[in-house]
Specification:
By secondary structure, the protein is an alpha/beta fold. It contains eight helices and eight strands. The radius of gyration is 17 Å and the shape is globular. This is Thioesterase.
Length: about 240
């Protein structure tokens, strides 16, 4: 497994040396995801952007830490971890649950007058597009089945029963956080917002993706890719061009 270059704290990882005077892109993982999920994207952007990736508690080298079970607490801690990196403009990219975390962290930065230059929300319905979900209440086998269904987990991991059982507590914490999240009625950002979605994503309808328009007072754009919930794994180069542009 690829080892991240440390940035001096547990939350923020950098896979490649930061190029000077570059865009600083912060990536927020999906439920159950770890920082290394973004290694291919960081590599595609090497030299074009300083890519920082969040590592949530409860996974990889943070395995012994308890997972966070609310989006509010996750966003609060991520915000504090990212404040030292706001010495240059930040761009946020979140995938699935990471889109909501990125949105809430952006709101916290804007509260203090330091909002991101752009917010990219991927593979997640709008904060106001509520759907009743209970994956976090399933037994371990139910969680594993959900991972298989979304096709975003390395097949080698799905075939390793012992390793799989090790990551389930973090996965359950993440699903608890995102499935119990309710956006505030006035939850908006001022930053330009680009939503990215797969045309066959079983978790996000076109209407739910477009509903993000109500959550920014800035410019809005919607980009649709071929693929499902993890469409981005097949569109790394195209995605890197959008994020590094």
């Amino acid at each position: 497994m690829t080892t991240a270059f440390p940035t001096g704290d547990l939350w923020v990882r950098r896979f490649h040396p930061a190029p000077p005077a570059s865009t600083r892109l912060v990536c927020f993982p999906h439920a159950g995801g770890s920082a290394t999920f973004y290694f291919p994207l960081a590599t595609a952007l090497r030299g074009a952007a300083d890519v920082l990736v969040l590592q949530y508690p409860g996974r990889q080298d943070r395995y012994e830490e308890k997972g966070i079970e609310t989006i509010a607490e996750l966003a609060d801690q991520a915000y504090e971890a990212l404040r030292p990196y706001a010495d240059r403009p930040l761009t946020f990219f979140g995938h699935s649950m990471g889109s909501i975390v990125a949105f809430e962290v952006a709101r916290r930065f804007e509260r203090d007058g330091e909002g991101p230059a752009h917010l990219f929300a991927s593979a997640r319905r709008a904060p106001s597009a509520y759907a009743s979900e209970n994956v976090h209440l399933r037994d371990d086998d139910g969680l594993i089945e959900e991972m298989r269904k979304l096709s975003g987990t390395d097949p080698r991991l799905l075939g390793d029963e012992d390793l799989l059982r090790m990551i389930l507590p973090a996965l359950r914490s993440d699903y608890t956080a995102i499935e119990t999240y309710r956006a505030a009625p006035d939850a908006v950002v001022e930053a330009p917002l680009t939503v990215l979605t797969g045309d066959s994503d079983p978790r996000v309808t076109p209407e739910e993706a477009h509903a993000w328009r109500e959550h920014t007072t800035g410019p809005f754009d919607l980009k649709v890719f071929s693929g499902g919930h993890f469409y981005l794994t097949d569109h790394i180069i195209e995605l890197s061009e959008i994020l590094g542009g």
